[in-house]
Structures are given as structure tokens and as C-alpha cells.
Amino acid sequence: MRFFARRGRRALFFWPAALLCAGLCGAPTSRAASEIPHLEKRGAATQLIVDGEPWLILGAELRGTASSTLVNMSTIWPELERLNLNTVLLALGWDWIEPEEGRFDFSLVDGLIDAARKHHQRIVFLWFGTWKNGISSFAPAWVKRDQRRFARARLQNGRSVEILSPFSSAALEADTRAYVALMQHLKAVDDRHTVLMMQMQNEVGLNGDSRDRGAAGEKAFAAAVPAELMQYLGAHKAHLSPELARHWADAGSKSRGTWTQVFGEGPITDDLFMAWSYARYLNHVSAAGKAVYPLPVFTNTALAEIWSKRTHPYPAGGPQYYLLDVWKAGAPSIDFNSPDVYAPNFDEIVANFHRDDNPLFIPESAADAHGIANAFFAIGAHAAIGYSPFGIDDTAWLINFRPDKGTPGTEDFDNTPLAKGYSVLHNLAPVILAHQASGAIGAAWLNKAKPSQDIVLGDYTLKVELRRSTRDQGFLSELGYGLAVALGANEFLIAGSDVQVTFQPRTPGPAIAGIADAEVGRFEDGHWVATRKVNGDDILLNYKLAEQAEINQSGSGLRFLPGPPVIQRVTLYRYD
Q1: What is the DSSP string of 216-257?
Q2: What is the CATH classification number for the domain harbouring 305?
Q3: 361 - beta bridge partners?
Q4: Which of 182, 299, 328, 496 is deepest in the core (most CB within 10 A)?
Q5: Chain centre distance of CA 250
Q6: Is residue 371 located within the same domain as residue 508?
Q7: What is the pLDDT of residues 287-321, one digit of tens each?
Q8: Pair 60, 95 in one domain
Q9: In sequence order, which residues have a C-beta less than 8 Å from that of residue 333 and are 6 or more positions away?
């Protein structure tokens, strides 16, 4: 897939046109214009395929009601282009398309698709149907008013809340009809595949209690655990999440019985019960939509502490990582379950959600410098389908991790961490997508609690560390990240910020890796263009060469300074 041309000491890497376009181009290729966007296992990665080629989502999600009118969106679209996005995540409220039962109005949908095309964006629609953040605030007024027909969830105190019950067959039927109508419309109007995927509801889970205490919920809880769930757990017993496996074993590992007989008494069993109930509901809606137009479907999760560490209530039954097995059993029509990550331990969270049967996508997270670190790590270390920070129509999110409402924003979109970071990821997208499939890619995500990480690629171990001062090895930067690609036996492409990278051979031969050639650069029209040679003080990381030789290091490596990420290409040689 890679071709070489030599001009003096500079290597030019040429990429086939189709691969160069992958994840970047807005118009479909002619040979695959009829292909619906879909997920496909390609080598070591599951990738989103759009118009026949892999697509890397460099996205952002707008706040919930930003997309409720075309008037409001008219001022936002130009800003999205300046942030170097290729995909925008837009809410689509049930009440926005079916204001009266049976009367559908898709003018908003058509307007959003048309504007996205004009501004060179693709769309992931977020279906705010029965639930948004676990609450039924986006259900149409005609649903909200008819509590007799559309049953509400009831709490332990006997009171109902503004949450439609997952045991309401009327709500399920109405939501499904609306979603199917939407998918029928997308199939009819979106011949250019502007819409890539669908998020099913938003952060589902019961707020206020560990389970729904309404009549239908109580009846279901008293019944036997469904055979489909028990069969799945039995078939996957060796691979269940440790938390679920432990809880089941502590209750006796029974293969049949009621929920309390199989899993014991208490809120953990309630959580499992609600997870199954929500999964079956979402599966029904998703499967009906896919029967019409099979776009990929995913969920997003409001994260909670694991059972053993829980200190406060949270919406019960959502697709937490330790409940993924219940969701996989109950909702096979949902392609993957995604975490919304605002916690500081991003690396641990994505590792929990990324499984062989659950490819990684981040629909909500930070948009500042921390967010770009997250994006590089998820894409490089976990073959993520893409990354999407939340709320960027409030531009304070572009410069703050989680700003308070009213925090001043910015109009300098071009120089935000998101725009700068996405510019580099755009440039690398063909390389990233090719090497996600081959498995020759890795990434590091670092802070003072985790100042270094080893990446094993090909014949070398790459040690990525927070950048140190050359003269004062005790100095450490605050946040750093790097994404590395093995281009050949002794060649690497590395992009990052505020880190340093050294190399250790893993195969027989001379023990020390030296830098034969290193450049800063970028890809232009599919080939590598060096913008600066780096050598001498640029690559010398530690002047104590005798000490470095004792540990089989040259004292040199790649240095990435603070600020926007840059790309460096390095060729290594070995010596004793």
C-alpha cells in the first residue's frame, strides 16, 4: 500500500487515491455510491465504512436543542468547518418530527442534511425518543399528557416521575413507529449517505430508584429471568465482566429462577433487571429501523461507579461496561455501546468499553487540550471509530474542560486545541485507518499520575514519557500524548504534544537504537513533505551519555513541545 520515491534524503510516501480520501472526502465514490454506511471488520480493527472506504469520525456533538431549528443552526454550521470537523452529532427529538400522533414533519431533517452537505459535514443523528438522559422530556406532548395510555415509571415511594416506563407497550409501539418513519425517510432522501449512524436514545437509565416499581415492572421482576439472558450468560461465562461474573457466582451461579433467585436480593439485581429491560426496549426500536434502513446503531452511557465502589444513586440499567454482557444479550441489533467520558481516568474507561464485540466510539467528552489527548489515544490505542467532544456550540467548551454555564468562550476557532488537533488527525487519517487494520499503531496518554507508557510496535519498544527538561530531568510537563505508526522495519511516524520518545530494540542484534534521520512534516496530496530536519539539540534528551549507554540508550529521541500536536518521521539504526 505504500510506495517510495527518493529526493536526496527525503522520503515521499504515496497513498492510493481511495485511501487518501478515506475519512476526509465529502462526496461518495462512484463505485460504492449505493453502499449504506456500515461497520466492517478489517484486519485488527472494526471500522466504519462509508462509500466503500473506511471513515474516521472527527466529530463534535452540539448541545441537545441546538439542532431544534434551522434558524439556530444557520450560525453554527460555518463555525464547524473552522474546527476541521468531518462529522457533527445532532439531536433529533421525537417531538420535533411527530408533533401530532401520526403526522410526521421531516422538514427539519431535510434542512439539516442539506446544510451539512453545503458545509462539507456528515451527520450522526441522536434519536431522543422515549428517553434523553433517562428522562422523557423529548417525547411529544400528546404522549406526555396521556399517562393512562403511556405508563410512567413508579418509584419505591409510589410516586411517578417524568420517565416513561420501559414496560409500557404503548410507548414502545409509538416510539418504534416514529423511528421507523424516520428511517424510511432517510432511506428515501439520503442517497449521498450524509447520515452515517444513529444513536439510540440518550444515556438511558432509571433516575430516582434502582428499578421501576410500576405494576408491569413488578410483574416482570417477579417472573423468571428470560431464557435468552441465561443462555447468553452460560455460553459466555468465561468471558463475562469480572463484576457480573462475581455477583452471579456469589448468588450461586444458578441457571434458572426469578431475578432474586438467580442474582440475589438488592440494588445490584435491580440494576441487572433494568439493564435487560432497557436493552430489550432499545433493541425492538433499533431492529425495526434496521429492517427498513440498516444504518449502524449505538448507545451512549452516563458512567457510574462499579457496584463495589458506589457512593451515590445513579440512573439504573444503562449500558455500563460491567453490564455490557446483559446489553449484548438483550440488544443484538445495537452495534456497540459507547461511554460518555468526562472523568480523568479516560484511559481506564475506554479500555473497559473496547472489546472484540464492542468497537470503541466516544460520542461525548472534552473539547480542550485534554480532549485532543483523548482523541489521539482512543484512535491510536483502541482503533476507535472516532471521537466527538460535547457541547461545542457553547464555545467555552473549546477552551475549558467542563465550563460552568456563562463561562466566556472564544471566537478564535482556528487556533483552538480541537481545530489544531483535528487538523493533524485529518492529515494522518489515511495512515491511521490503514494501520488500524494492520495493527501497526499505538498511542500513549500521559499525566503526572501516569508519566510514561511503553508501546510495542514491530521490532521496537517505544517509551513515551512526559517531556523532561534536558538539563533538569526532574521537570515533567502536565499533560502529554502521542500516536505512533510503524511504517517499516526501522521507520516510524509519530504525532503528539509535550512528550519525548525513545526506542529500544526487541530483536537480536545491536542493543542500542540511534536516530539515522528525523523530520517534522505533513502529508500533501498523499506524500510526505518534510518541513524541517531535526537533529542535534532537537533530539538530544539526556546529556549523561555514559549513564544512557549503561541502559542501552543513545541519549537521543524525539521531542514534542507543548501546544498543538506535530508529526515527526524517524528512521532508526542500531549499534553496540
Answers
A1: HHHHHHHSBPPHHHHHHHHHTGGGS-HHHHHHHHHTT--SSS
A2: 3.20.20.80
A3: none
A4: 496
A5: 33
A6: no
A7: 999 999 999 999 999 999 888 888 777 789 999 99
A8: yes
A9: 283, 286, 287, 290, 297
Q: Are residues 390 and 529 in the same domain?
A: no
Query: Which residues lie across from 80 on neighbouring strands?
Result: none
Q: Output helix, strand, coil percentages for the chain, rounded to the nearest 5.
A: 35, 30, 35
- Residues 452 and 555 reside in one and the same domain: yes
Which of 424, 439, 454 is the last residue before a domain boundary? 439
| CB neighbours of residue 202 within 10 Å | 23
Query: Residue 263 and residue 531: Cα distance in Å, rounded?
Result: 62
Whole-structure pTM value: 0.94
Q: 10 Å Cβ neighbour count for 236?
A: 15
Amino acid at 442: G
The verdict on residue 245 lying in a domain is no
pLDDT in tens, 455-509: 999 999 999 999 987 666 667 788 999 999 999 999 999 999 999 999 999 999 9
The count of structural domains within the chain is 2
Same domain, 466 and 425: no
- The C-alpha R_g of the chain, in whole angstroms, comes to 25
pLDDT at 12: 41
For residue 138, tell me if it sits in a domain. Answer: yes
Whether residues 451 and 426 share a domain: the answer is no
> Are 36 and 294 a contacting pair, CB within 8 Å?
yes
Q: Does some domain include residue 247?
A: no
Q: Report the percentage of the chain scoring pLDDT > 70.
A: 93
Mean pLDDT score of the chain: 93
- Crossing angle for the helix pair 267-292 and 242-250, nearest 10 degrees? 130
Inter-residue contact 195 to 125 (CB < 8 Å): yes
Q: Cα–Cα distance between 177 and 202 in angstroms, integer?
A: 18
Cell of 479: 499533560
Please state, in angstroms and rounded to a whole number, the distance separating the CA atoms of residues 138 and 140: 6
Domain span holding position 305 = 3-223+271-439
Other C-beta atoms closer than 10 Å to the C-beta of 102 total 10
E-only strand ranges, 43-194 = 45-50, 53-55, 57-61, 87-93, 122-132, 152-154, 160-164
**Pair 399, 546 in one domain:** no
User: Which of 415, 439, 463 is the last residue before a domain boundary?
Assistant: 439
Alpha-carbon distance values, 124 to 189, 192, 298 (Å): 15, 14, 10
